[in-house]
Specification:
Layout lengths: L1 H13 L17 E5 L2 H4 L2 H10 L14 E5 L6 H4 L3 E7 L7 E6 L7 E7 L2 H33 L3 H11 L1 E2 L7 E5 L3 E8 L2 E11 L9 H15 L9 E3 L6 E7 L2 E12 L5 E10 L5 E10 L6 H11 L3 E2 H4 L1
Parallel strand pairs: 1-2, 1-3, 3-5
Antiparallel strand pairs: 4-5, 6-15, 7-8, 8-9, 9-14, 10-12, 11-12, 12-13, 13-14
Length: 328
């Protein structure tokens, strides 16, 4: 069983095993998750629970795309080839399990890797653990995917872009090679990686804060977004400009990252009086002095392609945002 092999390996590597620099690089494509589970459980309730959690539709995409590409292998075939996968979930369901629960590990067999172990004495308990910890499981994998993008960004950075934005705003995301600065003013920045039929873009802008809860209410966020984009992001034709699509209402959730609380808005953008559109995600948060609401927004235009990975890549850049003092 997994408990006798994989669990022991996790404990060994996590408690004084090889440092990340000595581990092999991870394998697998971005957005893939390997589930190590017995065939009967994969085809049963526990497998369904994992599919409902990780293979559900990715939100705010025009076409149906799974949140992750979920594949499975049985414990008997979980060999060295599979152990270097980027994202691994080990489901140990056995009457021999004495300590039920979850374990979250990094860099067990490869780098940069995330490994989650779910241990349960029965399949029913395994399903309960997935239900009780679904948010933690999904966020751990999502953050691992973000961290890989940010690490590559810092390794192959277009440093001049962040430098110029820091001069204007005292804070900036980081951008990898391929991104160019399309527009910069005292209150608005537009950076994009433009290829044939694909654009991944980032806006950074700010506006005076009211200093109360209205700063992060949906109506206020969208009103400022629409006014800012109308002024700064024209379309291809006269009288056209980027705005927020209203055929599906945006949603706002709240999160905390690196000690900063922010409102995360997801929705669709479109070009007024034109046929361009796509998904966007925006982070709204206060400037350190509290005078401004800062916005870092990612968007994608890829009419001929699946958009999940394009959006995940550019959204990850928002999490690289540093203030000038943090840079120092």
């Amino acid at each position: 069983m997994i408990a006798a092999a994989a669990s022991a390996a996790i404990a060994l590597v996590s408690c004084g095993g090889s440092p990340a620099s000595l581990l092999p690089s991870v394998s697998g494509k971005a957005g893939e998750v390997l589930l190590v589970i017995d065939k009967d459980f994969w085809e049963g309730a526990s497998g369904n629970a994992m599919r409902d959690l990780l293979a559900c539709d990715c939100p705010y995409l025009f076409m149906s795309e799974p949140l992750y590409d979920l594949t499975n292998v049985t414990p008997a075939f979980f060999n060295d080839l599979f152990k270097v996968h980027r994202n691994i979930i080990l489901m140990d369901i056995s009457a021999d399990v004495q300590n039920e629960g979850l374990a979250f590990k990094k860099d067990v067999w490869a780098h940069p890797q995330c490994v989650i172990q779910i241990s349960a004495a029965t399949e029913q308990r395994a399903v309960e653990l997935v239900g009780e910890n679904g948010g933690r499981i999904a966020e751990f994998i999502e953050q691992a995917e973000r961290d890989r993008v940010i690490a590559n960004t810092r390794l192959y950075e277009e440093a001049d872009i962040a430098r110029r934005i820091l001069e204007a705003f005292d804070g900036s995301p980081h951008f990898p090679m391929g991104y160019t600065l399309k527009k910069i003013t005292s209150d608005f920045v537009w950076v994009a990686d433009e290829k044939q039929d694909v654009m991944q873009g980032v806006f950074v802008y700010r506006y005076p804060a009211a200093g109360d809860e209205s700063d992060f209410e949906m109506e206020n966020i969208i009103a400022h977004r629409n006014a800012t984009l109308k002024e700064n992001v024209p379309g291809m034709f006269d009288g056209t400009y980027m705005t927020t699509a209203d055929f599906v209402a945006p949603t706002v959730s709240f999160a905390r990252y690196k000690g900063v609380d922010f409102a995360r808005t997801r929705g669709y953008w479109e070009v007024y009086r034109d046929y361009m559109g796509g998904p966007f995600v925006a982070h709204n948060f206060y400037s350190p002095d509290g005078k401004y609401v800062m916005v870092a927004e990612a968007f994608v235009y890829a009419p001929k392609y699946d958009k999940r990975q394009y959006l995940r890549q550019v959204e990850s850049l928002l999490y690289s945002f540093d203030w000038k003092d943090e840079e120092k």
